[in-house]
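testing teh design pipeline on a random one, pls ignore if ur not involved
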């Protein structure tokens, strides 16, 4: 059995730990083994990197070194973390000068980055274990209409993220949803951002993007939005109420992490995975699961 070093990321661990709970339950049921390492922030691909690429590389490489020390690949529960760690690997693999600079910095804390382990996005691990997932489904979700939202950082940029799925029309998340028996609904804005990255400095633009996304999902008749990114989860889960007031249109579509949907389909109760902590309350379709 393959063992991975679990990279929960800052957002999940500190703000939405129930996502980690559902992920661990799902991994246990399908035989994906994980262990811990003293990881720090990835760091954020839209934060530190914009201001100091060398610091971004050094911080990311330090995390990779921790997994290298045990010879274990990393499994990331977060789009941004997976993107950063794979991006760091990509830059250092293709730039020997940067590699030298970063290892000089790492030597100050007794570490050296070698580039010998891989970083797996948890969606890709789930996709590789679809047979095991289907084998432990106990509750068919055939009455549920699901809009899948993979998020920007899952497959883009394609240089280091796009090797296992289509970077503009990704299918892996939809295939995992379908394994539960749920009906995946197609909608026009699948590849559109949730607006999270611009919502801070430019809230008007962020809200307009989210409105466009939600309008497309509503038009498709989805009962629930399923995501695989903590930033996207928070964006959909916390912003719909404000968006409803701002645009005088009702937005009230429950949001599930893909591991929450899988856990429910595997017979885990909503209480055991902390769904009471969601901001958007469960609708009739989810209550009847």
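output:
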């Amino acid at each position: 059995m393959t063992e991975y070093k679990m990279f929960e990321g800052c957002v999940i661990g500190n703000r939405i730990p129930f996502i980690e709970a559902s992920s661990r339950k799902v991994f246990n049921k399908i035989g994906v083994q994980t262990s811990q390492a003293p990881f720090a922030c990835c760091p954020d691909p839209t934060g530190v990197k914009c201001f100091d690429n060398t610091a971004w590389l050094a911080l990311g490489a330090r995390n990779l070194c921790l997994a290298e020390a045990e010879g274990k690949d990393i499994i990331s529960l977060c789009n941004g973390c997976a993107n950063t760690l794979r991006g760091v690997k990509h830059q250092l693999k293709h730039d020997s000068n940067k590699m030298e600079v970063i290892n000089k910095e790492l030597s100050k804390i007794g570490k050296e980055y070698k580039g010998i382990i891989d970083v797996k996005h948890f969606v890709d691990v789930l996709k590789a274990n679809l047979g095991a997932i289907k084998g432990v489904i106990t509750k068919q979700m055939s009455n549920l209409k699901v809009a899948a939202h993979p998020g920007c950082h899952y497959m883009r940029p394609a240089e280091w993220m796009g090797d296992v799925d289509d970077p503009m029309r990704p299918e892996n998340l939809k295939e995992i949803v379908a394994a539960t028996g749920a009906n995946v609904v197609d909608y026009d804005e699948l590849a559109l951002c949730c607006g999270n990255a611009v919502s801070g400095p430019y809230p008007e633009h962020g809200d307009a993007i989210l409105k466009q996304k939600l309008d497309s999902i509503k038009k498709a008749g989805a009962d629930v939005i399923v995501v695989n990114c903590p930033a996207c989860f928070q964006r959909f889960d916390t912003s719909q109420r404000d968006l409803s007031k701002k645009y005088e249109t009702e937005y009230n579509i429950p949001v599930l992490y893909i591991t929450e949907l899988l856990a429910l389909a595997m017979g885990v109760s909503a209480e055991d995975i902390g769904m009471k902590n969601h901001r958007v309350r469960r609708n009739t379709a989810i209550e009847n699961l």
